[in-house]
Write a structure and sequence with these properties.
This protein is α/β, with parallel strands linked by helices. The chain has a single domain, classed as Spore Coat Polysaccharide Biosynthesis Protein SpsA, Chain A (Alpha-Beta Complex), CATH 3.90.550.10. About 35% of the residues lie in helices and about 20% in strands. It has seven helices and twelve strands. The strands form three sheets. Strands 1, 4, 5, 6, 7, 10, 11 and 12 form an eight-stranded mixed sheet that branches. Strands 2-3 form a two-stranded antiparallel sheet. The chain has a two-stranded antiparallel sheet with strand order 8-9. β8 and β9 form a beta hairpin. α1 crosses α2 and α5 crosses α6. The mean pLDDT is about 95. The structure holds cytidine-5'-triphosphate (CTP) and magnesium ion.
Length: about 230
């Protein structure tokens, strides 16, 4: 199967408080996007990449590719949209015709181990329509109403915190985006697929696939890079 990788990288990194868009924020001397590209390419499973870039930053995003891509991998940059799902949709429209499995991976999950990409691809190639890495939840979660009053405490043992890369049969992902209601936003791709009635399969996630969201995550990423280098 030919595997295409979509990297939503168009976010501004507001919670990080960075001067640059988060994808261009450097961690350990390398940008978030370049780390993510290394992981995706390093998995050896991907033949095409489409990056959704923050508007007006396309050139700078394109420059990242020169350093990180072998000649065997084709890459394109598209302008991202307002919400993550708008960025993914635009990137999906730019995927080459030969792709039959699509991975969607947040640039912000930049230190994801390459092997996780392989695990997800294998599960899709093995017959699952949609595959998502997930980890058991460590905190007790509470559902609250708009006044902050607890409504419900769900059973934690049946919950999973989901990550990326998420993998799909191409038609399944395209159908999900075609069916997506514009006013019902989704924070990941598998939730759109779920709404079309397809089964979403969970594979074990990885603690190092965490998303760089807040400044504390940058500290964690730096520590992890230092440990990997030693
Ligand atoms: N993303 C995107 N297009 C958007 C919003 C987000 O491609 N309109 C991407 C981000 O670049 C990131 C991933 O989706 O790789 C996950 O989003 P998040 O962690 O929320 O990143 P930001 O939106 O940049 O961060 P913040 O919400 O703090 O501004
Ligand atoms: Mg965001």
């Amino acid at each position: 199967a030919e595997v295409g990788l979509i990297i939503p990288a168009a976010g501004m990194g507001t919670r990080l408080g960075s001067e640059l868009p988060k994808a261009l924020h450097a961690i350990g001397g390398t940008t978030v996007l370049a780390h993510a590209l290394r992981a995706g390419v390093g998995s050896g499973t991907v033949s095409s990449i489409v990056i959704a870039a923050p508007s007006r930053w396309e050139t700078r995003i394109h420059e990242q590719l020169e350093y990180e891509l072998p000649d065997t991998v084709e890459a394109r940059v598209v302008e991202g949209g307002e919400r993550r799902q708008d960025s993914v949709r635009r990137a999906m429209d730019a995927l080459p015709g030969n792709i039959d499995i699509v991975l969607v991976h947040d640039a912000a999950r930049c230190l994801t181990p390459p092997a996780l990409f392989g695990d997800v691809v294998s599960a899709v190639a093995g017959g699952h329509d949609a595959v998502v890495p997930g980890l058991p939840v460590v905190d007790t979660l509470r559902e609250v109403d708009d006044r902050g009053v607890v409504v419900r405490t769900p059973d934690r043992t049946v919950l999973r915190a989901v990550q990326t890369p998420q993998g799909f049969r191409r038609e399944v992902l395209e159908d999900a985006y075609r069916a997506a209601a514009p006013d019902e936003p989704a924070t990941d791709d598998a939730s759109l697929v779920e709404r079309t009635g397809h089964q979403v399969h969970i594979v074990p996630g990885h603690s190092e696939a965490f998303k760089v969201t807040h400044p504390l995550d940058v500290l964690l990423a730096e520590a992890l890079l230092a440990r990997r280098a030693s």
